[in-house]
Structures are given as structure tokens and as C-alpha cells.
Amino acid sequence: TIRPSRACSDGLWSRAVKVDPADGFAWNNLGSARLELGRPVDALAAFTEALRWDPRNARYVSNGAFARLRSGDPKGALEAADLAVSWDPSIAWVRKVRGDILQALGRLPEAEEEYTKALAIDHVLLEAYVERGLVRGRLGRKKVTGAGFQTGNAVSLANAPETFEPRPQVSPTMDFAKRLMRSTSALPAWPGTSQAGCCRCLREACARA
């Protein structure tokens, strides 16, 4: 069953790209929403459209790589991830996604190295800590696994079931929406912006969930 909040997010960004078809940011978020709904082919189409309007955005390429992996194209996923890293090796999330793909391909030492590079850029990137810990465990280095794995777990106990599944990078708005999905508390709104509508819609979705 699709959670209403996820379907709502997909609908919001679908409307956003109709209002402004040249908004790469909105296309990227639409791709992320579709990926969460288990529609990697549709997600890849959205990420590709995002690149059409922002053709040198390494994050969009990286998200597209992740969608290719979910679509059953690991070779194409790695090629896209390599391209994203070549465009901007200074983005931790781009490094982390390449690590996810290497891990899926069974290239564990390389995946561990990529996660380590990601953490050298952003030492609080939770997903990289957790995935590196899992890789080290699979490599049989249990003593090394503990620190990274426990660091990740300590930060994310409330969301443990989703922590271990890699996810694409999303915009701050989408990240806010994800946090919102897990809470029924009162939410701030941004009057005069499209985010205000997003908050209202997600509030309603949470109430129905």
C-alpha cells in the first residue's frame, strides 16, 4: 500500500513541473518521489529532465545513477556515478551513491573506500556511516564495523527500518517533507511560497496515514 504522504509528494512535484517545466530542481524532486514509490524508470525520466535544464549538475546525475541501479542496470548506474564524481568529486552524497552502486556490484573494498571519501567531505553523513559499517561487516572486519555502524544507529534509532536502504539525494524541501511524514506535530509554513502548499498537503496526508 502506498503511503498517502508519498503519493501526495509525487502529486505536488508533478504539478510543479507543469507550472514550470524548466525547473530542474522540481524535476529532481519529482524523480526522488517516484523512486520512493518504487517507480525507478519514471524516476530516471524525471532526473534526465532535470539534467536537461541544469546539464552540469552532478547531484542530478548521481540520482539518475541510483535510479538506473533500481531499474536493474548496474553497469549503466556505475557509468553515471563515475561521471557524477568526475564532474564534482567534492560532493559527499555523490561519493556515497557511487559507494552504494559498488556495494551492489559486490566490489566491497572499493565501496568502503568511496564511503570513507564521502565521510572525509561530510563527517556527519549518516547513510555513509551505516553503509560503510555494513560493508566492513561483510568483509569480516567486525572490530572496525562498530564505530561507524553505532554512530549511524545512534542518530537514527527512530527510523531504523529505512536507514539501511540507500536513497537518492533530495532537496531541502523534500528532506523536510520526509521528516514531516514521520511526525504529526505542528509544522511551520512559508507564506507566499509554494512550500506553504506543500506543508498543508503533507499535514493532511499525515492525518490520513
Structural class: mainly alpha
Main sheet record: none
- Helix and strand run: HHHHHHHHHHHH
Overall 3D shape: elongated
DSSP helix fraction? over 70%
Low-confidence stretches: 144-166, 171-209
Describe the structure.
- The chain has 209 residues and is mainly alpha-helical.
- It is 73% helix and 0% strand.
- The chain contains 12 helices and no strands.
- Helix 2 packs parallel to helix 4, helix 3 packs antiparallel against helix 4 (58-70) and helix 6 (92-104) runs antiparallel to helix 7.
- The longest helix has 16 residues, at 4-19.
- It is elongated, with a radius of gyration of 17 Å.
- 39% of the residues are buried.
Helix and strand arrangement:
Blueprint: H1 4-19, H2 24-36, H3 40-53, H4 58-70, H5 74-87, H6 92-104, H7 108-121, H8 126-138, H9 142-155, H10 160-163, H11 172-181, H12 194-208
Structure characteristics:
mainly alpha, 12 helices, 209 residues, disordered C terminus, elongated
Short description:
The chain is 73% helix and 0% strand. With 209 residues, the protein is mainly α. The longest helix has 16 residues, at 4-19.
